[in-house]
Amino acid sequence: MTEQELRKRLEVVRSEHRDLDAAIHALTQAGSPDQLQIARLKKRKLRIRDQIADLEDNLLPDIIA
């Protein structure tokens, strides 16, 4: 993957992460939140956070100290 493709993918994944955060917030504010659905969304959000970290690691050069 080129750097430009990585940056584009990173933006898409970050957007999905924000969307999940908004969905989780909306469900918790609902009158009777579905705890199972919230838990699944939180797990998915964590997986996406790991993807973001991996993409950022691929974009940043290794610095030898």
Describe the model:
The chain is 80% helix and 0% strand. It is built from 2 helices and no strands. The longest helix is centred in the first third of the chain and has 27 residues, at 3-29. The model has no long low-confidence stretch (mean pLDDT 91).
Features:
65 residues; mainly alpha; 2 helices
Radius of gyration based on Cα positions: 15 Å
Distance between the termini: 27 Å
The number of E-state strands comes to 0
Task: Characterize the overall form.
Answer: elongated
Task: Please tell me the overall pLDDT.
Answer: 91
Stretches with pLDDT under 50, minimum 5 residues: none
Number of helices: 2
Helicity level, as a percent range? Answer: over 70%
- Element-level helix/strand string: HH
Please describe the biggest sheet, giving its number of strands, its sense, and whether it closes into a barrel: none
Structural class: mainly alpha
Secondary structure layout:
Layout: H1 3-29, H2 35-59
Summarize the structure.
It contains 2 helices and no strands. It has helices at 3-29, 35-59.
